[in-house]
Amino acid sequence: MTGYGTSEIQSTEWRCTVELRSVNQRFLDIRLKLPAGFQNREKEYRNKIKGFCRRGKVECSVKIEPLAGENGWVLDEDRLQEMNGLVRLIEDSSEHSLQVQFRDFMQLDVIKNQSPDLLPESCVELIDQCMVSALQEFKQMKSQEGEALCTDLNERMVSCSKMVDELEQEAQGQGKAHFEKLQQRACDLLDQVELQPEKLNQELALLCDRYDVSEELVRLKTHLAHLENLLKELEVGKKGEFMLQEILREVNTLSSKSNNALISRIAVDFKNELEKMREQLLNLE
Question: CATH code at 30?
Fold first, then answer.
């Protein structure tokens, strides 16, 4: 499910920013980007995110930076003068010009990072507060999208229920109509052949039984009722996808058994609606 949440909190010395974003994916994939010194807390942050996500690709970025004071990058001017003197001495001795790059200043400690390698305990608390705030905003956005998707799915459920009623109404008397039609055709083709009526009717009844879709209609109603109950639960996605597969299987069976053009048309519309529902369920958790 698509979601986004961000939070920024600062103390007297530090500023923390947490950004969360997620896109649809079948399984849960959490990717964390943490500041140096916080890799040992990755499992803790993953567990917090898992409490708000069951599937999807989730990216979480945590940044912390000093506000002022001794923290940050500084230029060692005395070191810089020493380096300049050495560079000129080498150039005069070798009669070659040296190409000094920025990374050389870093390696020779001309530019230093005075931020501590291990951040103080106050930064841990700051990140925890920022993470909770970002997750709440993240959850709110996902909840709004989930409610909209469930509303759309419920409307499509009503449409599917109506189509089941149409199928049931159209299928009534279909077996009897096929029986009478086959009986008439058999009599027309075999009018010169003497047959036992009981044997003929038995064979015709077996043929007509293949057109009976009452079992499929019962299972369709059951599956739709089950799916409707699933939409009221917290976790819908994977269970809902399974139920849609079962519903589609029943519709395909019903369509193949029927020899009715109207039933075939309703089945096509039914499958089209199921495909739209499947796409929506892929966005739900």
Answer: 3.30.230.10
